[in-house]
Amino acid sequence: MGFLKRFFRGVFHEGAPAVPTHSSFERLSEEELEAHLGVQRYGKFMLTDAVRPSYDLKVVPQAGFRHDQYIDEEAKSKVPVIMAAASKEIVFDLFMELIDPLGHEVDVVLETSHHRDQGGHEDLYREHIDVPVLKSTLWDFEDLIMNDGCTGLAVLNPGIPQEVQFDEHKLLIIYGNPLAEYERIFKRFGIGLKEDIKFITEAEHVHSSSDKYFDEFEQLRMRLGMDAGY
User: Fold this and answer.
1) Which residues of the chain carry a pLDDT beneath 50?
2) What integer pLDDT is reported at residue 132 of this predicted model?
3) Which pLDDT does position 69 carry in this prediction?
4) What is the pLDDT of residue 11?
5) Cα–Cα distance, 160 to 44 (Å, whole number)
6) Distance between CA atoms of 11 and 17, rounded to whole angstroms?
7) By C-alpha distance, which of 51, 90, 110, 75 is closest to 186?
8) Is 61 exposed, middle or buried, given 0-12, 13-18 or 19+ CB atoms closer than 10 A?
């Protein structure tokens, strides 16, 4: 039951109530639920411990990337976006390499939804950090960043401007223009273009966290020199 207890922190998908109506989980026995949450691999794709898909598998986890766009209502502009999913074996290495095109000095945002059972999250910001220093710190917290479903991270260079996110669902999201260098990195890691790919966020899903990960999040926050905003 230790693994099971880390799930169901009131987060199914962002902004949703703690128990969504018509949930694929609502009529499961404890044994069925535990068996589903224990599945780590779907074909060649391995999930981190951070999230699990719905029981009815309306979206089956898989690797790939697609193009999208973010509409900035204030600036009345559209920002090109790449969204991607990668298997657990390579996703952290891939994220680290995606940081490189941002330059030698970046800003960092830590996203936390710990102890926020009604949805939503808090963003903590740190400006002007050297990339080698940042990467060294992130390597020290690889387990937290990869496997905690209440921790997300964004690295950005406002001067370009471009941003690389490794979000709570362990999806990789890149904002900005041009994006060709990021596409080359994905392909070098064997992540192909699939414009019709669906991601785990586009259906019901559950997040996993623990008190241990919250404590580690606090250590990471302090190492990055961020004040608590919650």
Assistant:
1) 1-20
2) 98
3) 92
4) 36
5) 35
6) 8
7) 90
8) buried
99: which residues sit within 8 A by CB, 6+ positions away?
106, 131, 134, 135, 155, 164
- How many residues make up the chain in this entry? 230
Report pLDDT for 71.
86
DSSP the chain: -HHHHTB-SS-SSTT--SS-TT-TTTT--HHHHHHHHT--EETTEE--SSEEE-TT-SS----EEEEEEEEETTTTEEEEEEEEE--HHHHHHHHHHHHGGG-SEEEEEEEE-TT-TTS--EEEEEEEEEHHHHHHHHHHTHHHHHH-TTEEEEEEETTTTEEEEE-TT--EEEEES--HHHHHHHHHTT--B-TT---GGGS-EEEB--HHHHHHHHHHHHHTT-----
Q: Is this structure's pTM higher than 0.90?
A: no
Pairwise CA distance, residues 114 & 121, whole Å: 8
User: In the sheet that 172-176 helps form, which strands lie side by side, from edge to edge?
Assistant: 64-72, 77-85, 172-176, 162-166, 151-157, 105-112, 122-130
pLDDT at 114: 85
108 Rama class: left (phi>0) / alpha (psi -120 to 50) / beta: beta
Omega within 30 of 0 (cis) for the link into 178: yes
Q: What does the alpha-carbon distance between residue 187 and residue 65 come to, in Å, rounded to a whole number?
A: 9
Q: Residue 2 has what pLDDT?
A: 35
Cα–Cα distances in Å, from 211 out to 5, 38, 200, 220?
A: 11, 20, 24, 14
Q: What is the token pair recorded at 23?
A: 């949930």
